[in-house]
């Protein structure tokens, strides 16, 4: 399956991704973005989620074939991690953004042996910080983290540098470049929009 081509088109079709270069979205950080991605919507579309799970499995088998445990980031990474773990017949856990303030105070739900080879599933990578935090939590609990498999990455230099600096391997099913190409191919954006979208990807902080 050519996931770089088919999955962006499906994400656009179901509205999981919206492209508005002339009316940008504002992220929680305050950053303006011409693209908004909500992969949680894919849960409601069986055909699309099946394509994503298949592509994630292909990524994992290609780059992390020795995987023993699948971990999902809470909350958006949980459903896809569960489907991937089921497909691979592997144990699954999920990692909270912070430890519970009640009960056992766990930050990781589920269990694995010390030294288990683990792959973290993330729905999207922007700065990369949330999944990097999840990787560090898994390591602190004794996992050997092989890397990250994500549905989508914005391909920002900030996230690339963060992963490189910490020597964390990561691979995504699809990416910003493929999404922009799909939006243009399907007529959702015009040729004049392409330069603006490229400029945002190069430096979102100065984009306007």
Protein architecture, described:
There is one protein chain. The longest helix has 18 residues, at 46-63. The strands form three sheets. The chain has a six-stranded mixed beta sheet with strand order 7-6-5-8-9-10. It is globular and about 55 Å long. The protein has one domain (3-202): Rossmann fold. 39% of the residues are buried. Helices cover 40% and strands 22% of the residues. The chain has seven helices and ten strands. By secondary structure, the chain is an alpha/beta fold.
In short:
It is built from seven helices and ten strands. The protein has 208 residues and is α/β, with parallel strands linked by helices.
Spell out the key features of this protein.
single chain, 208 residues, alpha/beta, Rossmann fold, six-stranded mixed sheet, two-stranded antiparallel ribbon, 10 strands, 40% helix
Helix proportion range: 40-55%
What is the 3D form? globular
Radius of gyration: 17 Å
Q: Architecture, CATH level 2? A: 3-Layer(aba) Sandwich
Number of contiguous helices: 7
**CATH top level assignment:** Alpha Beta
Number of domains: 1
Mean pLDDT: 94
The first-to-last residue Cα distance is: 36 Å
The largest sheet is: 6 strands, mixed
Structural class: alpha/beta
Strand order of the largest sheet: 7-6-5-8-9-10
Low-confidence stretches: none
Strand content: 15-25%
What CATH calls the topology is Rossmann fold
How many strands in all?
10
Provide the fold topology.
Blueprint: H1 3-14, E1 17-19, E2 25-26, E3 32-33, E4 35-37, H2 46-63, E5 69-73, H3 78-88, E6 92-95, E7 108-109, E8 117-125, H4 129-140, E9 144-153, H5 157-165, E10 170-175, H6 176-185, H7 191-202
């Amino acid at each position: 399956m050519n996931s770089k081509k088919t999955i962006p088109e499906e994400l656009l079709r179901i509205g999981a991704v919206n492209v508005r270069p002339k009316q940008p979205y504002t992220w929680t950080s305050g950053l303006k973005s011409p693209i908004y991605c909500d992969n949680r919507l894919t849960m409601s579309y069986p055909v699309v989620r099946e394509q994503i799970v298949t592509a994630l499995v292909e990524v994992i088998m290609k780059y992390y074939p020795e995987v023993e445990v699948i971990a999902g980031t809470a909350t958006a990474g949980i459903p896809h991690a569960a489907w991937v773990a089921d497909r691979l017949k592997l144990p699954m856990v999920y990692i909270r953004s912070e430890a519970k303030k009640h009960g056992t105070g766990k930050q990781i739900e589920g269990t694995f042996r010390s030294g288990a080879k683990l792959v973290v599933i993330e729905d999207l990578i922007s700065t990369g910080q949330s999944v990097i935090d999840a990787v560090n939590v898994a390591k602190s609990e004794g996992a050997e983290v092989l890397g990250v498999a994500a549905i989508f990455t914005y391909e920002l230099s900030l996230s690339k540098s963060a992963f490189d600096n910490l020597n964390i391997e990561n691979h995504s099913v699809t990416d910003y470049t493929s999404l922009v190409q799909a939006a243009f191919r399907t007529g959702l954006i015009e040729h004049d929009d392409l330069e603006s979208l490229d400029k945002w990807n190069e430096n979102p902080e100065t984009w306007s």
